[in-house]
From TrEMBL:
Transmembrane residue ranges: none
Coiled-coil region(s): none
Name recorded for this polypeptide: Head-tail connector protein
InterPro entries: Phage_gp6-like_head-tail, Phage_HK97_gp6-like
Organism domain of life: Bacteria
């Protein structure tokens, strides 16, 4: 059950000006490079394939479920859910939350659409982690060199460890 992202996040975790300030970049010459690092940090952290295993900013996903019953969603922190059958007719759906994440109960086979986002109180830690990643990549641009062989900052792991979600 691999989810499909239908609507990407509209809001950004890190703004370009914040990343430039963190890296002490003046002017606009590095805007494209910095935006690339911002996008890379989000791709590394966010969504089903990100290291967090969860959505950071609000975004819409869908999955196909072949039978009625209760099903664990592949991403935690679901905010809302709806379901439609193969003909496009609504299917009754109920959203549940527990310590293992989010799940839905559906009345029959359906495509379940759901919106997910990280709780607001966890965003400050992730902003700092993303800025640390961006700064690390900005300072270590080359693929192979003695300087670029440094691993990611330990503080990134420390910041994301309590937020990372592992599918049960």
């Amino acid at each position: 059950m691999i989810p499909r992202r239908i609507v990407p996040p509209v809001d950004q975790l890190v703004m370009l000006e914040d990343a430039k300030a963190h890296c002490r970049v003046d002017g606009d010459d590095s805007n494209v490079l910095m935006q690339g690092y911002i996008d890379a940090a989000m791709a590394y952290l966010d969504g089903y394939r990100g290291v967090l295993g969860r959505c950071i900013m609000a975004q819409d996903w869908e999955i196909d479920l072949a039978c009625a019953g209760r099903h664990r969603l592949p991403l935690p922190d679901a905010i809302s859910a709806s379901a439609r059958d193969a003909a496009g007719d609504p299917v009754a759906v109920e959203l549940h939350h527990d310590a293992r994440g989010s799940s839905v109960t559906i009345a029959g086979p359906a495509t379940v659409s759901f919106k997910a986002a990280l709780p607001e109180e966890l965003l400050p830690s992730l902003r700092v982690a993303a800025l640390l990643l961006i700064g690390h990549w900005f300072e270590n641009r080359e693929a192979v060199s003695e300087r670029s062989m440094a691993s990611l900052p330990m503080s990134v792991d420390a910041l994301i460890a309590p937020i990372r979600w592992y599918a049960p």
